[in-house]
Each structure stands twice: as C-alpha cells, then as structure tokens.
Amino acid sequence: MSEWLAQPLGSLAAFQKGRKVETSGHPREGFAPYLGASAISGVVEEYGDMRAGVIAAPGEVLMLWDGERSGLVGKAQAGVISSTVARLSPKTDVECEYLYYALDFKFEWIQGRRTGTGVPHVPKDLARILSISYPKSKSEQRRIAEILSTLDDAIAQTEALIAKHQQIKAGLMHDLFTRGVTSDGHLRPTREQAPDLYKESPLGWIPKEWEISQLGEVAEVNRGKFTIRPRNDLRFYGGQYPFIQTGDVSLANGRVLSTFSQTLNQSGLAVSRLFDEGTIMVTIAANIADTCVLGLPMCAPDSLVGVLPNKGQVSRFLQLCISRRKSWLEARAPQTAQKNINLEDLRPLLIPTPCQHEQEAIAAIYECVDFSLAESEQMVGKLRQQKYGLMHDLLTGRMRVNV
Description:
With 403 residues, the chain is an alpha+beta fold. It has 13 helices and 24 strands. The strands form eight sheets. It has a five-stranded mixed sheet with strand order 3-5-4-9-6. A five-stranded mixed sheet has the order 15-23-20-21-17, sandwiched between helices. The protein has a four-stranded antiparallel sheet with strand order 2-10-7-8. Helix 6 (138-178) runs antiparallel to helix 13. The protein is globular and about 70 Å long.
C-alpha cells in the first residue's frame, strides 16, 4: 500500500483565471467553446475568441469561481475560459482525474467559505487553505479515479434514460388527452386518419364520446383552512393528524403523497380541514398548480386546495387534467410578487370528461410510464449516494484499493 500525503491545493495545481472575450452564439473562425458555468455542467452555449482568451485543454480541471455555484468543478475540454472560471493545471504529484474528484468532494466545503457581499465567489486564498489528501502512488490515484468515473458513467446513462422516459411521457400525455383510449386499450386513430371520431370543443379537438365539464361540476373543490404557525406552537402541532404544506405537494411532483413531516393535534384539526385519501391537492400560491394525490387523509393550510372527485370520476385522471392546465392557471395569477389563484379560478376550470372506464384506462397507462420514470429517478439517487460514500472512503484513504 502506498503512502498518503496531504498538501495545500496551491502546491498541487497552478491557477489561472479566465478573462472576458468577444463571444458568439455559434461557431466562428478563430472561436472555440466558451467554458463558463454551463460548459462545466456539460452544455456549451457560446463560443469565445481564442486570440484574446485563456485557453483550456484536456488534462486540466475547471472551477467556477464566481456565482451561486462557485466551487463547482468540471473536467476541462478544449476551449476559451470565461471570466467566472479558473483553470487548474495539475503539477507532478497528482493525476488530473484524481484532482477533479478530490475537488468535487470538497464542493460543500468551498461553498461554506465563499466570500463577497454581492456575487459570491471562491475565497481568494483557496490555494492555501484547502488541503488535498492523495496517495503518493499515481497508480492508486488512477484506480480511485477509475472507480468513481465508472459510477459517473452509470449516473449519466441513467440520466439519459430519464430524459428518454420524460420525452415518452410528454408525447404519451398529449396523445392520451387528444385521442383517448378505445375499449381494447389502444389509442384512437388520429383525427387525420379518422376525422369522424372527433369533435371540436373549447379545449380543441376531442373524441366524440367525451364531454367538457367544469372542475367544480365533477369534483368537490375546497380550500384548506389552517394558517401556518411557528412549528413550536404546541397549541396546534404534535398530534395524530398528518399535516402537509405547499412544499410537500411540489416535491411529490404529481405523484401519490403518503409521507408527512408535521402533525396537528385536536386543536389544530378544529381550525384546519381534513382531506380524504384520493383527494387531489393543488397549490394556489408560489408554485401555482403543482399537484399530488393523497395516499391517506391529511390536513392542509389555506395555501392548498383539495379536489375530491365525485362518484364516477378518477382521481389520477382529474389530477392529470389539472396539471395540463397549469400554464393557463399560472396566467390567471396577478403578475406581482405574491402570485396566487383562488377557488374562482379552479372551480370553472374546463377539463375533458370521458366515461369512468376510459378515465381508468388513461390513468393506468400513465401510471405504467411514470413508474418506469420513478424507478430510474430512484436509481440515480442511489448511485449518487453510493458515489458520495465511495468518495468519502476512497479520497481520504479510509478504504484502500488494489492496483
């Protein structure tokens, strides 16, 4: 096993900050990718003039020097470094890949030491105050980087799968809500293929069998009652009744919500409203028209509206209908700092209403695709946790690797 050392970052890499140059939105002669914040994350949006710029090359590490994400690092590609980015050129003791992961592991540490009253930036003495641990053997450095790079590849592949699922989901949603599903579970032919199967409506062309209804006609629409108090107000909190807020609905991301972090006692229940399982919760302030479906009865504040479907209506279908009208509802909100909508915006909301059987079929198809997407999202989360754990063990010498 090789010896481990620790040195200040400045002893392991040379720093050079980028500078402002002429940029272009498209490639031009004498221009190269402009390596700013987006390029560190893998997206090139501009091209910079190479003649006046600081040039980066593969084998170097880029660090975002200014901005909210200052301290973020990326593997350098050939290009022109922006004025908000610094180039770190490894010296003889560390491999570039190892240095990249060592700095990536220190991101939170750097973030906690940012300076600047306006735009935050990396501390100017970072090269002196940040210590990097590393194995003296470069073979061990390369092996550690190889292990972490393998996890990065798995994360990137899973993220690509998520993007693919999201595209499929978006296209399917459009088809399900414009063509619907026949009794045998297939999409109807398109209107171009079978125009006699469709009719015009206030929401555009829909299947002939469908009707257009107001949300208040097919569901009970009520606003929550509870006004948020400080968490330590024991007059209302700390009982047996689950209580959710706007943030819980937004984080649920349209899915079934069965978890909660707060509860109300009997006094809290008396000044709140308890919504039944299967109720669709809709945010009416901040992130307008975020939705979820309750997996169990819960109380809610006055910043949420509960939509409980009438008999013959399907919760998941109605929730998707509301989600599809999100942009319309957002446009209804006053264009002020305190954007919000109310019951007078939700109850008249026009939605398509097929028969219950077709609603159930549409909901089932959606759930199948969304389940695959959720699995991929969970996998990315697990891979990121695994990577962080390995970084903690491998980059500190706690776990040694065989070379």
